[in-house]
Every structure is written in structure tokens, then in C-alpha cells.
Amino acid sequence: MPSNIEIKARVTDDSALKERAKIESGSEPTILEQEDIFFHVPNGRLKLRKNKGATSKLIAYERDDTVEAKRSDFNLANVTEPDALVAVLTRSLGVKGIVKKKRELYLVGQTRIHVDDVEGLGTFMELEVMMKDGQSQAEGVAIANDLMKKLHVQESDLVDKAYLDFLLEKQTS
After folding, report:
1. What's the CA gap between 123 and 110, in Å, rounded?
2. pLDDT digits (tens, 9 = 90+) for 42-91
3. Residues 148-154: contacts with CB within 8 Å, 24+ apart?
4. Would you state the CATH architecture of domain 3-172?
5. What element of type H or E holds 85?
6. Helix (H) and strand (E) counts for the chain?
7. Residue 147 near residue 108 (C-beta atoms within 8 A)
8. Would you place residue 1 in the very low, low, confident or very high pLDDT band (cuts 50, 70, 90)?
9. Residue of 129, 149, 169 whose CA lies nearest to 17
10. Distances from the Cα of 124 to the Cαs of 54, 91, 93, 147, in angstroms?
């Protein structure tokens, strides 16, 4: 099963973070507009990611909600008819929530740096170290922690929740 090591943090100075990410990656970012539709499921999370101008994906994943670097195990499938699949999944599972974001994607080795402008929440940064076969979790965590330092991300900025969880909390408060 594919996996990655993730870190997520709030961003206070997005222009400085983007400049550091650009330096680390050696290139301009790829700009993505995404809508993640989450469904009620008994285990983990299930979302349909609609990518403007690109292939949509159905993604199932499990990940602990902690502030430190954490492992995420996932499966994904390309979706050619996202609206039809949303209708089917909504009817059978129900929608838990929707996250809309504009993402700037930078690639550094085996790590994806995401600078996300999340509708209703603000700006966040995610690191996803895409694990290689046979690579230990400790190696992935070390890569994530090293890049976090290079990007000047402070431990006090780390968050332990998914964007959806923050949005759901906002709705209930």
C-alpha cells in the first residue's frame, strides 16, 4: 500500500515560505485548484478530489491526527466521471464536508511541498514525503523534519487536524 509521511502547519508569512520552497525545489510551483468532497465511511477517510483541468481522483486514507510527522497509508483511483461518482457516493454514504483550496505544489526530491490557500481557513503548508519501497518510517520523518527546518516552519505552527476537521469545528462553534 502506498504511504507518505506528512507534516501540516499554519502559515503566517506565505510569501517568505513560497520563496524558501522555490529555492529548495529550484523551480516555480505548479498551481492546482482542488475541491475535496469527503464522504461518511466507517474507517479512515474517503474523498473525491476534483482537480480543475486535470484528472479527478478517489482517495481512501488512514492517518493519525497528531502534530508531529505522521504516516498516511492511502489508495487512489483515477476518476473519469467525477460528478456521476459524487452522486453515487452521496446517495450511498452521504457527504461529510467539502474543502476547496488553491494549492501551490513544489517538488523537492521525494517530497511534495504544498502551500494551500484553503477557503474559509487561510493558508497552510503540508509536506508529503512519498515513501519508497523498503524505506523506513524513521527515514521519512527525518526528511520531513529536515525540510521543515529549511523552510523555517516552527513547531508551534504545526497542526493536528485535517482541513475538513477545522471546517467542521467552525460550523459547530
Report:
1. 23
2. 999 999 999 999 999 999 999 988 999 999 999 999 999 999 999 999 99
3. 148/7, 148/9, 150/20, 150/24, 151/17, 151/20, 151/21, 151/24, 151/113, 151/125, 152/16, 152/17, 152/20, 153/7, 153/9, 153/17, 153/125, 154/9
4. Beta Barrel (2.40)
5. helix 82-92
6. 4, 8
7. yes
8. confident
9. 149
10. 22, 32, 29, 15
Q: What is the dihedral of CA 64, 67, 69, 73, to 10 degrees?
A: 20
Residues 32, 126: Cα–Cα separation, whole Å:
14
Pick the closest to residue 95 from 159, 37, 150 (CA basis): 37
Q: What is the mean pLDDT of residues 9-29?
A: 97
- Nearest CA to 141 among 6, 2, 44? 6
Its pTM stands at: 0.93
- What ranges do the domains of the chain cover? 3-172
- Cell numbers describing residue 5: 509521511
How far is it, in rounded angstroms, from Cα 100 to Cα 89?
Answer: 18
